[in-house]
Amino acid sequence: MRQQQQLNILQSLPLNCISVDTTYLYFQCGQYHYRPYQYQDRQLFIEIDPYQRNPSLPK
What we know:
By secondary structure, the chain is mainly β. The protein has no helices and 5 strands. The protein has strands spanning 9-10, 18-21, 25-29, 32-39, 42-47. It has a 5-stranded antiparallel beta sheet with strand order 1-5-4-3-2, with no helix packed on it.
Protein backbone atom coordinates (compact mmCIF):
# COMPACT_ATOMS: atom_id res chain seq x y z
CA MET A 1 0.00 0.00 0.00
CA ARG A 2 1.33 3.40 -0.96
CA GLN A 3 1.84 5.99 1.75
CA GLN A 4 0.12 9.26 0.95
CA GLN A 5 1.03 12.60 2.42
CA GLN A 6 -0.80 15.88 2.35
CA LEU A 7 0.63 18.44 -0.08
CA ASN A 8 1.48 21.85 1.29
CA ILE A 9 1.02 24.39 -1.49
CA LEU A 10 1.77 28.12 -1.31
CA GLN A 11 0.72 30.86 -3.72
CA SER A 12 3.79 32.90 -2.76
CA LEU A 13 6.93 32.26 -0.77
CA PRO A 14 7.82 33.92 2.55
CA LEU A 15 10.44 36.69 2.38
CA ASN A 16 13.28 34.70 3.97
CA CYS A 17 13.57 32.11 1.16
CA ILE A 18 16.72 31.45 -0.83
CA SER A 19 16.93 29.64 -4.16
CA VAL A 20 18.94 26.43 -4.39
CA ASP A 21 19.91 25.15 -7.82
CA THR A 22 20.90 21.48 -7.75
CA THR A 23 19.61 18.97 -10.30
CA TYR A 24 16.38 20.99 -10.02
CA LEU A 25 15.48 24.42 -8.66
CA TYR A 26 13.91 24.69 -5.22
CA PHE A 27 13.62 27.29 -2.50
CA GLN A 28 14.74 26.92 1.10
CA CYS A 29 12.54 28.85 3.55
CA GLY A 30 13.92 28.16 7.00
CA GLN A 31 13.31 24.47 7.65
CA TYR A 32 10.87 24.12 4.73
CA HIS A 33 11.68 23.54 1.06
CA TYR A 34 9.47 24.34 -1.94
CA ARG A 35 9.64 23.63 -5.64
CA PRO A 36 7.96 25.92 -8.20
CA TYR A 37 5.06 24.39 -10.11
CA GLN A 38 2.95 25.83 -12.95
CA TYR A 39 -0.79 25.29 -12.59
CA GLN A 40 -3.46 26.96 -14.71
CA ASP A 41 -1.16 29.82 -15.76
CA ARG A 42 -0.12 30.47 -12.14
CA GLN A 43 3.09 29.66 -10.34
CA LEU A 44 2.59 27.79 -7.10
CA PHE A 45 5.12 26.34 -4.66
CA ILE A 46 4.85 22.77 -3.42
CA GLU A 47 6.62 21.63 -0.26
CA ILE A 48 9.20 18.93 -0.95
CA ASP A 49 11.66 16.77 0.92
CA PRO A 50 15.01 18.34 -0.06
CA TYR A 51 16.81 15.02 0.37
CA GLN A 52 14.67 13.26 -2.23
CA ARG A 53 16.58 13.24 -5.54
CA ASN A 54 13.62 13.67 -7.91
CA PRO A 55 10.52 14.89 -6.08
CA SER A 56 7.37 13.77 -7.80
CA LEU A 57 4.86 16.53 -8.37
CA PRO A 58 1.17 16.32 -9.16
CA LYS A 59 0.41 16.22 -12.87
